[in-house]
Amino acid sequence: MKQNLKIAILMTIVTTVLLGVIYPLVVTGLAQMLFHDKANGQLLTRDGVVIGSRIIGQGFSAPGYLHPRPSAAGNGYDAANSNGSQYGPTNQKLIDRVNADVARLHAENPSQLVPVDLVTASASGLDPDITPAAADFQVPRLAHERGVSEQQIREVIQRHTMGRQLGFLGEPRVNVLEVNLDLDQQFPMNKRAAIAQQSVAVR
Amino acid sequence: MTFNGWLQIAIYLGLILAVTKPLGIFMTRVFNRERTFLDPVMRPVERLVYRLSGVDENHEMHWTEYAAAMLLFSAVSMLLLYLIQRIQLHLPFNPQKFAGVTPEHLAWNTAASFTTNTNWQAYAGETTMSYFTQMAGLAYHNFVSAATGIALAIAFIRGIARRQMKTIGNFWVDMVRSCLWVLLPFCVIGALLLVSQGVVQNLKPYDTTKLMEPQQVQHINADGKPAVDAKGQPVMDTVATQTIAQGPVASQEIIKEYGTNGGGFFNANSAHPFENPTPLTNYIQMFAIFAIGAGFTYTLGRMTGSQAHGWAVWAAMAVMFIAGVTVAYWAEARGNPLLQGVNQQVTALQPGGNMEGKEVRFGITDSTLFGTVTTDASCGAINSWFDSYMPLGGMIPLVNIMLSEVIFGGVGAGMYGVLIYVVLAVFIAGLMVGRTPEYLGKKIEAYDVKMAMLVALVFPLVILVFSGVASVHNFGTSGISNPGPHGLTQMLYAYVSGAGNNGSAFGGLTVNTPWYDTSIGFDMLLGRFFMIIPMLAIAGNLAQKKYVPPSLGTFPVTTPLFSALLIGVILIVGALTFFPALSLGPILEHLLLAAGKTF
Q1: Which of the 8 DSSP states describes residue A113?
Q2: Cα separation of B452 and B516, whole Å?
Q3: pTM higher than the cut 0.90
Q4: In this prediction, does ipTM exceed 0.90?
Q5: Which residues are CB-contacts of A34 (< 8 A; sequence separation ≥ 6)?
Q6: CB contact residues (below 8 A), chain A span 110-149, against chain B
Q7: What gap in Å lies between CA B473 and CA B419, rounded to an integer?
Q8: How does pLDDT run across A31-62, given as a tens digit for each residue?
Q9: CB interface of A with B, residues 85-104, below 8 Å
Q10: At what angle do helices B39-53 and A2-15 cross, to 10 degrees?
């Protein structure tokens, strides 16, 4: 008993150094060497300013931008506070939130039902993607706001659509941040319009 | 439900089938202390560990000494984890300058949680824990609690395999060899594979980025509630930046799954894009969760000299896995009938279904598959929130844990858990033909069955007492976030997850309170150690028995009939115990939802 207690104390120290310090530091070193960009979060810069991570969603509400899913991370796309809504399927708060979003989106594109991912909060609150259906739903608005044809918008979206990985894994998806960067580059909104849009965005 | 969805599930099970034999053989060699290809690297490290900690690697232990060593190690390492959390401000690798974890009951809960391989999280990682605490406190326990589970299962298998011996191995040797041979090499490779897909691995402070479009968001008060002014209008803030949490994630991520621990680096666990960025990382993580549990069925067959018995156990597990994933997939793919004006159908452009609390890259298939796998095993990592599942979809994870997580199961824990059921199944078969039951040449006698029943009874007793108390007191019900029958499910799930050492949650329940932290802490410790002691007692008792050659009256444990009987016993013992509670929670909610009722 006494012998095993002594071993337990020493074993805790020895294994903590090995598995709790050496192992993660070695992996960090290798990761930084081999996959520097990926290991640091795939940050994107525009005009020398870091504007986000390729794989972390951020909020967009101006009509000229592709909109992401509702987010329950902090007060919306807080990437230091990941979370889902945690609403159960029979919670009235869920129904109310969905109804309000559906009403708003339906006014914008009355021709089709709202794709489900566009009115449901993701698990992380940081989902960088929407489904191709949800992107397609927003095409008429984007074309109108950017003053270009729907086909031109679809081509931009197509460029940032990923199919199933290895041909069968996961689901097809559209990266919202990449589309919006591309839209700004290809079809910039003029400054006045952009400012006007920002004030519209306050809801 | 789609063809591609079923294809993903089928290929997944195929991969688990493929890894069973090689990993099973490898583990057999490791624990029989035979040569393996890793010896040139690991043997010197192993010897160094023994020299530094004073272990005599040739010493053999009686089951009581084995249990004592395991308990002492758990107690000492749990104390260290508590200490690390409390003083993390004064330790290195804390770029966010997080203060020591408070209140005390949270640090206690977390220490119990990670020591017991549960990884229940009453905290949010990215706002609470320093990088050092994550690495040396939490990820460290992911290794040793998994290694402890593996050691215990090996000890049990030795108990069956050995004849007229008083000892069942050396805990320290089994634990260290689990870490160095079984866990560590796979984790180094797996972690780098995850990084190559986009799981972050760094020690830098959180990044602050400038948003493309500043957003108006509702202000959150200090109490965590959205702010409103005197007229009841929301108070808005303009947010122009985004703070992106970072950290040494990949090294923790891989052991989180491979050791069936489940504690996320971030609050959103494997739903967070930095923990699980692509469908491939998701597949790797699911594979890692089942790998050791599946391999153990082969190790069982090989060490006891009855390979067909190992496969019979594998088959029983696979059948229950398929049943679970089918129901969960079906329930979620149907969508939520209460949502109006929403397209939840499968189309060429979307997978449809109930997407609340799920990520687009995973859709319905990979979310429900992950959810089933993580609760079949005692992992508890999640990539979608069970709280937002449909009533019957969320019932599957709950039932999986109620069956004691023996469907491939937690590393080691799944094996010794299922062996308890095997003992009961053999006993019941013996009763039916009126003979003393035998299992692989060992007579199963009163002592063994008593101990097995103790294991089978402690689990529901702990859960039902705690959740019963919680459901009739304000300190329990005040944590509920989803009213109606769903609220009962939230509380029940918390205690089932704790005692089952799973760690997943119906995440809406407010659990960082003195009551929940303390009670779930005990729930986890009782669920772990009160299972282990009787289990080791059976192992020690079996080891000293004589070998009885099989006769005409011996019930064969290698046939489909045995697999069916095993499933029957698991379902009867597990599910029937909890049926009343289930009928008041998810089943009632399902019926009310069908009638259009909301809460």
Answers
A1: P
A2: 29
A3: yes
A4: yes
A5: B192, B195, B196
A6: 112-117, 119-134, 136
A7: 37
A8: 999 999 999 999 999 999 999 999 999 999 99
A9: 85-92, 94-95, 98-99, 102
A10: 130
